[in-house]
Amino acid sequence: MSVATTNDTMPAPAASPSAKKARRTPAPQSSFAPWKDPNATPIVRFENVTKRFGSFVAVNNISLDIYEREFFALLGPSGCGKTTLLRMLAGFEKPTEGRIIVNGKDVTDLMPYERDAVNMMFQSYALFPHMSVERNIGFGLRQEGMPAADIDARVDEAMGMLELKQFAKRKPHQLSGGQQQRVALARAIAKKPRIMLLDEPLGALDKRLRQTAQFELMHIQESTGTTFIIVTHDQEEAMTVSSRIAVMDHGELVQVSTPGEIYETPQSQYVASFIGDVNILECRVSNVLPDGQLELNWVDGTGKFVAQPPPSGATKDQQVWLALRPEKVRIGLDRPATDVNAIPGKVENIGYLGSISHYHVAVGNDESVTALRANASLAVDNTINWENDVWLDWPADAGVVLIR
């Protein structure tokens, strides 16, 4: 479990389990949400797609719709099937079962060069070392037989968009990793595809440059109106750039939703743990209150919790897990006014990260807690130190009850 606070003076939780039901603050939402429109037509549709390599199932019966102008992320650990799914969309792999529809056309059996609407940027960038930047960018257009004047115009436009004109005559080995990444992206953009596929495009960049490149990708996607589909194992990257995320595990879709919804309302322990830091407490439902909230008994310690039920509901004596994001929970030296959603602990370790401090706290039956505290000022009242006895508490709407 990890716990956090940004302010020692935040209001205390509800005084009793029967207090008025708290409402969870909704995740930030964009007005762009075609997936909520029943009349919207997806530009990409996977219909019961399965891919086997011998006896190994890399992608298992996936159905998924992606809409025009989305920045869609396929997120998951290595080996979860995300790159295989992207390669099938690009045409480099063929599904064992199912269909892939692009812009209303079945492209399941088409070769990559026959998929005019789709272009792929590879993780390795795949730049030609003997060609200049401008020649690399125009390569695909020359292969298509486009007139030279049109190629020059497209290349100039792409270099201008990615600020590469000053490097036009350089060879790839004369560029930094970030500049090479922009050349590879410019080459893909120059073809003006309706769908851009990106396989771990920022994986070779250092952290600071990767963060800058993420916002560059977002700006390019918004300015071109191209549908971007990115494969990444970086949760922060997916949360930053995408309009929706598909979390994958063992070849299956675990949850598909907006970044805010996945973070705030994960549907399983796997998703909760994979996206950001989380505290997961094993509990048992002791009572279902009249307002629908659940009273929970903590299995690994003494404590009574109150939380909102999962969408599917829960019954008395059912085993559940309470997921708490670190920033949702308060930490302090003084005992809260109520024992509901409050547990004592002892600070074992402290890590200072500039903007926040991490407090590793022992609670319950040999459980470990990571508590976060924002360093909002130079002087902090009631400083918490090693070996201090502390209290952790949170409001009733802070936790998400999971049943799997």
What does this structure look like?
With 404 residues, the protein is of the alpha+beta class. It folds into two domains: 2-24 and 277-402, Nucleic acid-binding proteins (OB fold (Dihydrolipoamide Acetyltransferase, E2P)), CATH 2.40.50.140; 34-264, 3-Layer(aba) Sandwich (Rossmann fold). 21% of the residues lie in helices and 32% in strands. It has nine helices and 21 strands. It has helices at 82-90, 133-137, 139-143, 148-161, 177-190, 207-224, 235-241, 259-264, 269-274; strands at residues 2-5, 44-53, 56-66, 71-75, 97-102, 105-106, 118-121, 195-199, 227-232, 244-249, 252-257, 279-288, 294-298, 304-307, 319-324, 330-332, 342-352, 356-363, 367-374, 389-393, 399-402. The strands form four sheets. The protein has a six-stranded mixed β-sheet, with no helix packed on it. Strands 7-8-9-4-10-11 form a six-stranded mixed β-sheet, sandwiched between helices. Strand 5 (97-102) and strand 6 form a beta hairpin. The longest helix is centred in the middle third of the chain and has 18 residues, at 207-224. The chain is globular, with a radius of gyration of 25 Å. The relative contact order is 0.17. The model is unreliable at 1-22 (pLDDT under 50).
Major beta sheet, strand line-up = 1-19-18-17-20-16
- Residues in β-strands, percent: 25-35%
Identify the CATH class of the largest domain: Alpha Beta
Largest sheet, described in full?
A: 6 strands, mixed
Helix fraction, binned, reads: 10-25%
CATH architecture of the largest domain: 3-Layer(aba) Sandwich
Fill in the CATH topology of the largest domain: Rossmann fold
Number of domains: 2
Q: SSE string, helix = H, strand = E? A: EEEEHEEEHHHHEHEHEEHHEEEEEEEEEE
Report the principal-axis shape.
globular
Spans where pLDDT lies below 50 across 5 or more residues: 1-22
Rounded radius of gyration (Å): 25 Å
Mean pLDDT: 86
Total helical segments: 9
Distance between the termini: 17 Å
What is the CATH homology-level superfamily of the largest domain? P-loop containing nucleotide triphosphate hydrolases
Q: What structural class do you assign from the helix and strand content?
A: alpha+beta
Number of strands: 21
